[in-house]
Design brief:
14-stranded antiparallel sheet, mainly beta, 221 residues, globular
């Protein structure tokens, strides 16, 4: 698919978004950023698929201290496999810009040999599954999360409406990006606890907690 068609799909999807969720991100219980998630059906590569757009921006006061402007776009098919991924993130001393393309029916990161296998979730599609149809996780053929060309095993423990997510790296390969954005880094950091609270088919709260690190994203009505 030509680049101009991808751009048109993404712009059109922003305008006609079906589901939108807003979150306040806190560090040590202090609000530092806003996060929005927009989800809709979209036509991509000749098929109806699901588009998710995530955006994170520092609150005005923290723009001077630690400005963050992160955008992530993900298209998945009915089996929750990634068909397209784009990320543009800006924070002090780190700028990430990556995108995928389909070559020979395989999704590759541009200008690299890293590819995304079929039936492999990433953190965004995992969150979507927990929101929409968590029972489908029982039928996934593997328990692997893909993150920018790097792979992790994962497990979930359910406690009523709370999920405890454990993630472990499968190799020393750093993947496509050596220094990723602060929020991706926090989620995949070793030795942290990850809690996801789901109610009414939406994520009510996500918590990433370590000995010092403490990130929380809370849903805003």
């Amino acid at each position: 698919m030509e680049m101009k068609n991808i751009i048109l799909i993404l712009l059109f999807s922003f305008i006609l978004c079906l589901d939108k969720y807003n979150y306040k991100i806190k560090v040590l219980n202090i609000p530092v950023a806003d996060c929005s998630i927009m989800i809709k059906d979209t036509l991509y590569n000749g098929d109806m698929q699901t588009l998710m757009n995530f955006e994170v921006n520092s609150l005005k006061f923290y723009e001077k201290i630690y400005p963050v402007n992160n955008k992530y776009s993900l298209i998945i098919n009915k089996e929750y496999s990634t068909k397209y991924f784009k990320k543009n993130t800006i924070q002090p001393q780190i700028i990430n810009s990556i995108e995928t393309q389909i070559k020979n029916d395989t999704v590759y990161y541009n200008e690299s040999n890293y590819f995304i296998p079929e039936n492999t979730l990433n953190i965004f599609s995992l969150l979507y599954l927990l929101m929409k149809d968590p029972e489908q996780l029982k039928f996934k053929s593997n328990d692997i999360l893909e993150r920018e060309g790097k792979f992790y095993s994962y497990s979930l423990i359910t406690d009523n409406n709370k999920y405890i997510l454990d993630i472990s790296s499968l190799s020393d390969d750093l993947g496509l990006i050596k220094d990723t954005d602060i929020f991706t880094w926090a989620i995949f950091k070793d030795d942290v606890k990850r809690y996801i609270y789901i109610d009414d088919n939406k994520i009510q709260k996500c918590v990433v907690k370590g000995s010092i690190l403490n990130f929380t994203a809370e849903y805003i009505e």
